[in-house]
Design goal:
The complex is a heterodimer of chains A (558) and B (355). Chain A contains 23 helices and two strands. With 558 residues, chain A is mainly α. In chain A, strands 1-2 form a two-stranded parallel sheet. Chain B is of the alpha+beta class and 355 residues long. Chain B has two domains: 225 residues, P-loop containing nucleotide triphosphate hydrolases (Rossmann fold, 3-Layer(aba) Sandwich); 110 residues, Nucleic acid-binding proteins (OB fold (Dihydrolipoamide Acetyltransferase, E2P)), CATH 2.40.50. Helices cover 23% and strands 35% of the residues of chain B. In chain B, the strands form five sheets. In chain B, strands 7-8-9-3-10-11 form a six-stranded mixed β-sheet, sandwiched between helices. In chain B, strands 2-1-4-5-6 form a five-stranded antiparallel β-sheet, with helices on one face. In chain B, helix 5 links the parallel strand 8 and strand 9. Chain B is globular and about 80 Å long. The relative contact order of chain B is 0.12. Classes of the chains: A mainly alpha (558), B alpha+beta (355). Chains A and B meet through helix 9 and helix 10 of A and strand 7 and helix 4 of B.
Chain lengths: 558, 355
């Protein structure tokens, strides 16, 4: 008895000490916070009249457009994500099994690729309007056609590819709800529709809010869609102020404002969850009830689920494929393969780095649990919420200082110029990606880690396995899947990432995303299609993983 | 209040509920008793409208709610339902849980509060369910189900989540509340003691069929087959054959009324039907003191038969003196039942009647 108590005391003492794990976690947190801190600090730097110029002219546009985008995407992803999730989870209709996973497919589409495709088809000179004119003999101004290059157009594009965030989280929430609760609601006099509104929906609220906030993070970070549609937002403002006006300070301050929006969203998420991760009052599951839909209702359900899939994936992917089929022979040359190799190399490096750092954090949090490591992990994973352009700006500035400082010191003391060591190199890009995507890899690693209970460690130790043997024989095999998932997710997100890559890439360093963007900007969409399609194909990888994960997430549900 | 007539339901070829007939009167508590997988929960779910019957008819309050092409969904059946794990809504307070089934109106909260007081939980109204103990959750679930004044209350193992001391008290309190409200109650359980203690009538189910329905003691004293006999207590089973109109148990002969000579039978003897003291010789094989009584295993002096009986603490000291002691017993025929075995080699004789 006494020996047990003694051991407990020792463990408690050891926790308080600052050791290697804790220091490592703190170091990661400090590095990850660096870009955000730099950007936030910029509001104290005077930027001259550029700022007052901004405030007097375009700033209102930035704010208003960003708000419209946020409101529109929130509404669209909520409606599409929740309704499709409820239909495929709770109702039985033909095609449901396929739609269950197919509804995640738009996630593979970079928003900018969808925007380029639709703009090409729906523009005045696009095939749809041309066909209308030719068929009905209309001329310019004879007819009304919705302008795709507009705020509603951007909302639609972003909503179509971002609703899967809400869909996935809502579906997981619906799946985890005990059917008993829904059945009780039925016997208490609520029909299926009221049961959804009074029980299903409120219980899924935390998950739905999180899904919408994730979609909104992507929305405010988006550069490709709004730039192509000439919708002025904070993202395009940062680029314009920096590259157009050449005012880095003002650009950084715009980034700081955008950061403010992000923290507002994070606060909304906290509030929306109401601190309530609902404790499941019941642990019994039975196969989900499946309200069987027939006739018109079945067709309605199919239409509601197929439409987003069609518009968010099948049509744009189909168009891209059709164009690529024509232009690929011409487009695919040494340049294409070089860009593809660049993309894959950078994404793979980012994935490995992000997973390694995530492992370090996860082990620190496990081996040295306490407020210090908790906060370190929390701060380290904040980057997912910060738009790529903001992180990029926040990386550029300190790295630039560092390079200049080293360079001038070396010139003064050694007499050689070192030039750019960090900024404008792969190092800056990789650093930015890891900061931005660490949360993704960390969550995947941690969820894998949580399946390894401390008692498994203890059992392994009691059976004579030392810490390293336990790591090799218990942790590694159990974690393998999670690590792979983490790596794939970071890999694909890096591949799709546009604004940060645009800002940080070394001179003459092109990737698939950059070339897609450049060709589309030059209105050479047919040429861009092969590049865009390659990104989509890589993007399908995690979608497959995610679909499988959702299907497995319900106990006793095959 | 509830009438099931020839109700059947099969799942992928397995007959889960097979021609079940059962009625529950207002204020009556009927227990559906059976081992897991016997179809009792499916029967309950059919009554609730959570499953549809494949054939047969379900009537509640004289109105057909399932059968003959009609199907009334659960929300319009006026049934209350309490699950084993209570299934309280985690996002609602205790009061809102109880008020869930009440129509919107000024007195809604009042009514819910009144119900909470009836289950002595008025002071927990603003708490969320996870803050409540198991017993409290059970009472909230009951109050919630009672709130819309259901005609029929359906309880699915409602007390098995509670520890056994709480179970007795809460079970009795709950059912007296339901009896007072005049609600017809159908309760599913696999616990024969619970059914025995709480039910007005028990319906024993096996493999989708109701094997026997009756008052608890009638079932105990007059089981229709070995399955029912075995469900309520441990039982001594002796395989033998009818000779000269009687069966030989090894501890005396019993009449084999209605069974022809030569029929293979299983004699079921409840432990308490073997009484210490008497002329039938036996030998003590093992003794397990249980406190208030001792479980004593006897063996036949000649034949290879073993018997289990209960001996009150201090009642017959020679039974627990030592293993191998020779003792005398007598048989109380009221606790002995003779069933024809249906060629079932496992000894699990099943004299089931098709209904």
């Amino acid at each position: 008895m006494t020996s047990l108590a003694d051991t407990g005391l020792q463990v408690a003492k050891r926790r308080a000490r600052l050791d290697g794990w804790t220091v490592a976690a703190l170091l990661v947190a400090a590095l990850a916070m660096l870009p955000v801190a730099v950007v936030a600090a910029s509001i104290f730097v005077p930027s001259g009249d550029a700022w007052s110029h901004l405030a007097g002219t375009v700033l209102v546009d930035y704010v208003v457009n960003t708000l419209w985008l946020v409101a529109g995407v929130a509404a669209l992803t909520f409606i599409v994500g929740v309704s499709t999730a409820w239909l495929v989870t709770m109702c039985a209709f033909p095609g449901r099994r396929i739609l269950e996973w197919a509804l995640v497919l738009p996630l593979a589409m970079p928003a900018y690729a969808v925007a380029y495709t639709y703009a090409e088809v729906l523009d005045y000179s696009g095939s749809v309007q041309s066909w209308l004119r030719a068929t009905f003999g209309w001329g310019r101004g004879d007819y009304w056609f919705p302008e795709v290059r507009s705020v509603p157009g951007a909302v639609l594009m972003l909503g179509l590819v971002l609703y899967p965030y809400v869909y996935m989280l809502a579906r997981a929430a619906f799946l985890s709800q005990s059917v008993c609760l829904l059945e009780i609601s039925r016997t208490l006099g609520s029909g299926p529709w009221h049961t959804f509104l009074r029980v299903g929906l409120p219980m899924a609220r935390p998950a739905i809010v999180t899904g919408i906030v994730l979609a909104l993070m992507e929305t405010i970070g988006d550069y490709g869609v709004v730039q192509h549609f000439s919708v002025s937002t904070f993202s395009t403002g940062i680029f314009r102020t920096w590259y157009g006006l050449g005012n880095l300070t003002a650009a950084t301050q715009l980034a700081a404002l955008l950061l403010g929006v992000v923290f507002l969203l994070l606060a909304i998420e906290r509030l929306g969850r109401g601190g309530a991760v609902y404790h499941h009052t019941t642990t019994r599951y039975r196969p989900l009830p499946a309200f069987v839909l027939r006739g018109a209702r079945a067709w309605g359900a199919i239409a509601a689920c197929v439409l987003p899939l069609l518009l968010g994936f099948l049509v744009p992917a189909g168009l891209l494929a059709a164009w690529a089929a024509q232009t690929a022979p011409r487009v695919v040359d040494d340049g294409f393969w070089r860009d593809a190799l660049n993309s894959v190399t950078v994404a793979a490096l980012a994935a490995v780095l992000a997973v390694a750092v995530a492992l370090l954090l996860a082990f620190a949090a496990r081996l040295r649990p306490g407020p210090v490591t908790t906060w370190a992990t929390r701060l380290s994973t904040l980057g997912y919420a910060v738009p790529g352009a903001v992180v990029a700006v926040g990386v550029m500035i300190p790295f630039g200082w560092f390079d200049n400082a080293v360079d001038s010191w070396m010139r003064d003391h050694v007499g050689i110029s070192t030039g750019l060591l960090l900024s404008g190199t792969l190092a800056a890009m990789l650093f930015c990606y890891v900061v931005r995507f660490l949360a993704i890899s960390f969550n995947a690693v941690e969820s894998g880690m949580s399946k390894i209970t401390p008692n498994m460690d203890r059992a392994a130790r009691a059976l004579g396995a030392g810490p390293w043997a336990a790591l090799r024989r218990i942790h590694a095999p159990l974690l393998r899947g999670s690590l792979l998932t983490a790596a794939v997710l970071v890999f694909v997100d890096t591949m799709k990432e546009l604004p940060a890559t645009l800002i940080l890439r070394p001179f003459n360093f092109d990737t698939l995303a950059i070339r897609t963007y450049e060709l589309a900007s030059d209105e050479r969409l047919a040429d861009a299609s092969t590049y865009a399609l390659s990104i989509v194909l890589f993007g399908l990888l995690p979608v497959v993983l995610l679909s499988a994960a959702i299907a497995r997430s319900r106990p006793g549900h095959s | 209040m509830l009438e099931l007539a020839g109700v059947s339901r099969d799942f992928a070829g397995m007959q889960a509920v097979d021609h079940v007939d059962l009625a529950v009167a207002p204020g009556e508590v009927v227990c559906l008793l059976g081992p897991s997988g016997c179809g009792k929960t499916t029967t309950l779910r059919i009554a609730a409208g959570l499953e549809a019957a494949d054939s047969g008819e379900v009537r509640i309050g004289g109105k057909v709610v399932d059968g003959g092409g009609a199907f009334v969904p659960p929300e319009r059946r006026r049934v209350g339902l309490v699950f084993q794990d209570y299934a309280l809504f985690p996002h609602l307070t205790v009061l809102d849980n109880v008020a869930f089934g009440l129509p919107a109106g000024l007195d809604r909260a009042e009514k819910a509060r009144a119900l909470l007081s009836r289950v002595n939980l008025a002071d927990r109204a603003t708490d969320h369910p996870h803050k409540l103990s198991g017993g409290e959750q059970q009472r909230v679930a009951l109050a919630r189900a009672l709130a819309p004044s259901p005609l029929l209350m359906l309880l699915d193992e409602p007390f098995s989540g509670l520890n056994f001391r709480l179970r007795d008290r809460i079970g009795e309190e709950s059912l007296s509340l339901l009896r007072a409200a005049g609600t017809a109650t159908l309760m599913v359980t696999h616990d024969s003691d619970e059914a025995m203690r709480l039910a007005d009538r028990i319906a024993v189910m096996r493999a989708g069929r109701i094997v026997q329905v009756g008052r608890p003691l009638d079932l105990y004293d007059r089981p229709v087959d070995l399955f029912v006999a075995e469900f309520f207590s441990e039982i001594n089973k002796i395989e033998t054959v009818v000779e000269g109109g009687v069966v030989d148990t090894g501890l005396g002969k019993l009449p084999a009324s209605g069974l022809a000579n030569g029929t293979s039978v299983i004699v079921a003897i409840r432990p308490e039907a073997i009484r210490p003291g008497g002329s039938e010789p036996a030998q003590v094989a093992a003794v397990h003191p249980m406190g208030a009584y001792a479980l004593v295993k006897l063996k036949h002096p000649v034949r290879d038969i073993r018997y289990l009986l209960r001996v009150e603490h201090g009642a017959a000291p020679e039974f627990s003196a030592k293993v191998g002691a020779r003792v005398g017993v007598s048989l109380d025929p009221r606790g002995c039942f003779v069933f024809a075995s249906e060629g079932d080699a496992s000894g699990h004789a099943a004299v089931t009647r098709r209904r």
